[in-house]
């Protein structure tokens, strides 16, 4: 499994040393504002285990992201197959989640571009999608910066959220090779 590098970042396989900072990131209300709930330590560790296995098995997934200059773990970026049913699926989603201290540096955009290049290059995908709650304007800005187009006809109510939930409505973005 190749690591992906950018000018400032390393997208790599997960390490045991990532568990504690990833759990802290997932328990941060600011980071998780556009998600239905905070993630427990057990859920956080399970996500690392699942993504580590996906990267080992298929050569891609949600990679751990670190700042090359300092070696600091700052979150994840990569691709995953959504695990719910929707009209626009099957597909491969690009996503990211970074620690609050990493915000405002362009890291999400930089890492997402590297993941897109890998998805369209070695993985051979024809299209990559992304989606988020309508309230998550910062992630929508990243989607736009990496060239994704809002597919308004594809906007949807997330099937894993109850009717009337503040995050139920989601926007769908797409980009083709």
Q: Label the structural class.
A: alpha+beta
CATH superfamily: Gcn5-related N-acetyltransferase (GNAT)
For the report, how would you describe the main beta sheet?
5 strands, antiparallel
CATH topology, by name, is Aminopeptidase
Per CATH, the architecture is 3-Layer(aba) Sandwich
Number of domain units: 1
- Radius of gyration using CA atoms only: 15 Å
**What is the overall shape?**
globular
Give an overview in words:
- The chain is of the alpha+beta class and 177 residues long.
- It has a single domain, classed as 3-Layer(aba) Sandwich (Aminopeptidase), CATH 3.40.630.30.
- It has helices at residues 19-26, 41-58, 107-120, 137-145; strands spanning 4-5, 9-12, 62-67, 73-80, 93-98, 127-133, 149-150, 156-157, 169-176.
- The chain has a five-stranded antiparallel beta sheet with strand order 1-2-3-4-5, with helices on both faces. Strands 6, 7, 8 and 9 form a four-stranded antiparallel beta sheet that branches.
- Helix 1 (19-26) packs across helix 2 (41-58).
- It is globular.
- The model has no long low-confidence stretch (mean pLDDT 96).
List the helices and strands and how they pair.
Blueprint: E1 4-5, E2 9-12, H1 19-26, H2 41-58, E3 62-67, E4 73-80, E5 93-98, H3 107-120, E6 127-133, H4 137-145, E7 149-150, E8 156-157, E9 169-176
Antiparallel strand pairs: 1-2, 2-3, 3-4, 4-5, 6-9, 7-9, 8-9
Helix pairs in contact: 1-2
């Amino acid at each position: 499994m190749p690591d992906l590098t950018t000018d400032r970042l390393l997208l790599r396989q997960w390490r045991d040393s990532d568990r504690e900072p990833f759990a802290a990131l997932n328990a941060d209300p600011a980071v998780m504002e556009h998600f239905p709930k905070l993630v427990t330590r057990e859920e956080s560790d399970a996500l690392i285990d699942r993504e580590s296995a996906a990267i080992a098995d298929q050569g891609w997934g949600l990679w751990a992201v670190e700042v090359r200059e300092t070696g600091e773990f700052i979150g994840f970026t990569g691709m995953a197959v959504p695990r719910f049913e929707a009209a626009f699926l099957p597909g491969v989603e690009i996503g990211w989640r970074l620690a609050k201290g990493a915000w405002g540096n362009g890291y999400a955009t930089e890492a997402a571009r590297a993941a897109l290049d890998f998805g369209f290059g070695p993985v051979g995908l024809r299209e990559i999608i992304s989606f988020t709650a309508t309230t998550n304007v910062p992630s929508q800005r990243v989607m736009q910066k990496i060239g994704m187009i809002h597919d308004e006809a594809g906007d949807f109510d997330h099937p894993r959220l109850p009717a009337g939930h503040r995050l139920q409505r989601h926007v769908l973005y797409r980009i083709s090779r």
